[in-house]
Amino acid sequence: MDGFHDLGGFQGFGKVPHTINSLDYKQVFKQDWEHLAYSLMFIGADHLKKFSVDEVRHAVERLDVRQHVGTQYYERYVIATATLLVETGVITQAELDQALGSPFKLANPAHAEGRPAITGRPHFEVGDRVVVRDEYVAGHTRMPAYVRGKAGVVLHRTSEQWPFPDAIGHGDVSAAHQPTYHVEFRVKDLWGDAADDGLVVVDLFESYLDHADVAQAVKA
Length: 220
Known about the structure:
Helix content is 31%, strand content 15%. By secondary structure, the protein is an alpha+beta fold. Keywords: Lyase. Residues 1-99 form the Nitrile hydratase beta subunit-like N-terminal domain.
């Protein structure tokens, strides 16, 4: 789904401060309470088996824009997990409000049912030129908006396979399992000639991709 959570490639936000990754250990949690957000999420997803991690990601996507702007990363996961615990009947909104002593705003309800994976096709191979499917998805997806319709080259295919996010993210436990691909894109192909020279590698599920020659033939 297109929303405030998917801002990759948007202009007008100024420079993003960043540092080059190193092999040195980097602290994951910057505040003492942050590890509780992940603990709560995995209690619901793994211990209670009430939802999947992709359903948590979808709940994060369902937050109001004001909630995204006004909260930190791990706060969003607390809200998302609380939303799913209410939606799956582990706790009620009234019990949550009473425990906190004030109304707790949950994520918005889901407005889509998800979609199945594309199956029955041969895998892509390293070196294949592929195109990301140019499609709008109303529900959860892990296909960044800035690569839709863009062509790149497959660098790697994972040996492991995972449930297709667009299905499992909506509670479909029968979701087809697929590998993901490291696809390399030219920066200028993504953002035009005004962008710097360089390459971007994006990890994409198989159903998000078509062979470049097939996509061109369809357009023709």
